[in-house]
Design brief:
Elements (H helix, E strand, L loop, with lengths): L1 H8 L3 H15 L2 H5 L20 H9 L6
Amino acid sequence: MIDAISDAAQIPPKAAGDVLAILEERHGDFDKAAIGEESEFSADSYYDEKGPDNQGWQEEWRKRPVNPC
């Protein structure tokens, strides 16, 4: 998580760790943590890197009717 935050925000890893600590404190799920499950902002969360994808937006755009002005 620290690497992801550091890379996305272009900040040093120490600053990214501080950001992660704040996010975990504000948005962490303490019930999940108590039973050993990770939440979105857990320090040990793991995310797969994905590239940008606008396919969903393109499909929605194609569904819209043409509205001549």
